[in-house]
Amino acid sequence: MVTHVPAEAHGDERGALLSFIEAQRGGLRRSVLGLTDEQAASRPSASELSLSGLLKHVSETELGWLRMAQQQPNEKQRTQETWSDSFRLVGDESVAAVLEFWDAVVVELEKFVRDLPSLDDTFPLPDQPWFPKEGRVSMRWLLLHLIEEHARHAGHADVVRESLDGKTAWELVAQAQAQA
Q1: Predicted local distance difference test score (pLDDT) of residue 1
Q2: Does residue 100 sit in helix, strand or coil?
Q3: Which residues, 6 or more positions from 59, have their beta carbon under 8 angstroms from its beta carbon?
Q4: Which of 18, 24, 141, 157 could join 31 in a cystine, given CB atoms 3.0 to 4.6 angstroms apart?
Q5: Burial code of 71-96, b = ≥16 C-beta within 10 A, e = fewer?
Q6: SS3 state of residue 42
């Protein structure tokens, strides 16, 4: 969905990048407006994606990248055995709880980014086959990657939501504005 995303101030790269991330988060959050947890967990297509699963995945992914940048252990680290649980609610998890968790991650990420001396600072990538050996990325790269990751999944959420009840992203924006 094309929207104008203003920077907080002219020339404010950090603010602009954080605003673009937030715009994509908004698309994902709006995808569950007016739905029950059961509706948000449903899979209306051949895909295994559900709206609640997408919310959980992006919140855990955002935390994972934050912890990598901070060079701290990830308390939600997934294993091969638990990877699929990052795409669905399990046990007593709810959409509200996932959104609350994500809100806390957002606050922490934004504080971390605003406190960085420079977006040129780097951190090491983990030793995984899909990353370059001894690879490093900048904090700017991290923010651009989160925009990419969230936008990809916001698009998935648009399709899943429209498949559930026909509501488009524009209708959900209007609904959110009416509720604000």
Answers
A1: 46
A2: helix
A3: 98, 101, 102, 105
A4: 157
A5: eeeeeeeeeeeeeebbebbeeebebe
A6: coil
